[in-house]
Amino acid sequence: MKPIIAPSILAADFANLQTEIELLNQSAADWIHCDIMDGRFVPNISFGLPVLQAVHKHARKPLDVHLMIADPQLYIEQFQKAGANSITVHYEACPHLHRVIEQIKNVDCKAGVALNPHTPVALLEDIINDVDLVLIMSVNPGFGGQKFIPHTYTKVAALRELIQSKNAHALIEVDGGVNEETAPLLLEQGANVLVAGSFVFQASDPLQTIANLQNIAS
Ligand code: DX5
Ligand code: ZN
Question: Which amino acids does the record list as binding a divalent metal cation (predicted)?
Fold first, then answer.
């Protein structure tokens, strides 16, 4: 099965966002990954609801919204209305994770949970059957263009095992430092969705780069 490719627009040219979205529309990308950062949960601020709405106006691919924000439960409906197709919240930001996952499903979005690099996969044992996707952070969240953390391979393999043992159906998404070297190894361990920011947008040929990622055999 081909992986789902989700370019992250965090690495796009924000002054020419419409052009960047149109490029992704033409590409083989499956989803458009949108990184929302609040300066509280992560030490950086990216963009919020009005920008997401503007992206939605032009995008012809599902918007995969990654909320790196504190108290995400307060904003689920607003992100759905702004155009999100999937909404991923951080395990570390949700003391009542099960409730937030239900909230996301109630607005008909795919529900995801993200794990920071230090958060073990085993903590998902009692929620894995309720989520549509698990996003494994392969860098510390907050910035694009960081170095991939190699321990991620072990985490992806552990998550694949957990999903199988529970007969669950969650997709495994990996986010941070994905490129032509890390992608094949991630797919080998069982990843289904690859997020790539700088690798796509800093490439001389982003369309070809997206197609190449999608055609990597696992
Ligand atoms: C990081 C974000 C990522 C980021 C990935 O906090 O969640 O989605 O855009 O960027 P690259 O692919 O450049 O590591
Ligand atoms: Zn992300």
Answer: 33, 35, 66, 175
CATH number, domain with residue 40? 3.20.20.70
Of 126, 132, 151, whose CA–CA distance to 140 is shortest? 151
Q: Let me know if 132 is a catalytic residue.
A: no
Question: What's the whole-model pTM score?
Answer: 0.98
The question of whether 71 is a catalytic residue gets the answer no
* Range of the structural domain that residue 35 is part of: 4-214
Q: How many domains are contained in the chain?
A: 1
Ligand 1 pocket check for 66: Cβ under 6 Å = yes
Q: What is the DSSP string of 94-150?
A: -TTHHHHHHHHHHTT-EEEEEE-TTS-GGGGTTTGGG-SEEEEESS-TT-SSPPP-T
Question: How far does CA 23 lie from the centroid of its chain?
Answer: 19
ipTM: 0.99
Catalytic residue, candidates 30, 38, 64, 175? 175
pLDDT for the residue numbered 217: 74
- Tell me how far the alpha carbon of residue 35 lies from the centroid of ligand 2, in angstroms: 5
Distance 199 CA to ligand 2 centre (A): 13
